[in-house]
Amino acid sequence: MIVLASKSASRQAMLTAAGVSFEAVPADLDERALEASLEGALPETVATSLSEAKALAVSAARPGSLVLGSDSLVVVNGQRFDKPQGREDAARHLRFFSGKTMRLHSGAALARDGDVVFRTVNLAELKVRELTDAFIEQYLDAEWPEVGYCVGVFRIEALGPQLFENISGDQFTVLGMPLLEVLGALRAEGELPT
């Protein structure tokens, strides 16, 4: 059994559906402070660094356990977006995303006994259709507060597909974790059958 350093429902659902036994232990980490320390870094570096930091934070308290950390980062027109701070912030994000391409970087890292043993990051590109203010309000009426916990203000497994014209990248990356690479790493670490 591995430890998932996250409270993300979508990451937990992915692991459960893939038959991976895990215990969820969210990392106690100031993600915004870590992001601030990485100012100017490439988005993929930030996603990987946050994933590593989560895995290492939980690994320190769980000797011998293999800990999975994961994080996603959204960039639109060169601007990085975090989870919205409230419904009005979510609406502002969606208005900004309208008609643009969202670049979603999903990273993952595995740590054991304070050492990172695996890291990866994948990219998905999501073309946001033109969104009207009326649509944004109706969408948030239906999806708030759940999308408030999601970078990009969408759940692809719910009404999120209505935001997009097309998506390039695998479904797991869009859900928030490069699952295929993680499964390969878990096999390499002896946590899954080969």
Describe the structure.
The chain has helices at residues 9-17, 31-37, 43-59, 87-97, 133-143, 171-175, 179-188; strands at residues 2-4, 22-24, 66-76, 79-81, 101-112, 115-128, 164-168. With 194 residues, the protein is an alpha/beta fold. It has one domain (2-188): Maf protein. Strands 1, 2, 3, 4, 5, 6 and 7 form a 7-stranded mixed β-sheet that branches. It is globular.
Q: What's the short story on this structure?
A:
With 194 residues, the protein is an alpha/beta fold.
Keywords:
single chain, 194 residues, alpha/beta, Maf protein, 7-stranded mixed sheet, 7 helices, 7 strands, globular
Oligomer class:
single chain
Tell me which CATH architecture applies here: Alpha-Beta Complex
Content of β-strand: 25-35%
What's the SSE pattern?
A: EHEHHEEHEEHEHH
Q: Provide the domain count.
A: 1
General form: globular
Main sheet characteristics = 7 strands, mixed
Structural class: alpha/beta
- Quote the distance from N terminus to C terminus: 16 Å
Give the C-level CATH assignment. Alpha Beta
From the 3D structure, determine the CATH topology. Answer: Maf protein
Number of strands: 7
Average pLDDT value?
Answer: 96
> Segments where pLDDT lies below 50 for 5+ residues?
none
User: Helical stretch count?
Assistant: 7
| Radius of gyration based on Cα positions | 17 Å
Helix content: 25-40%
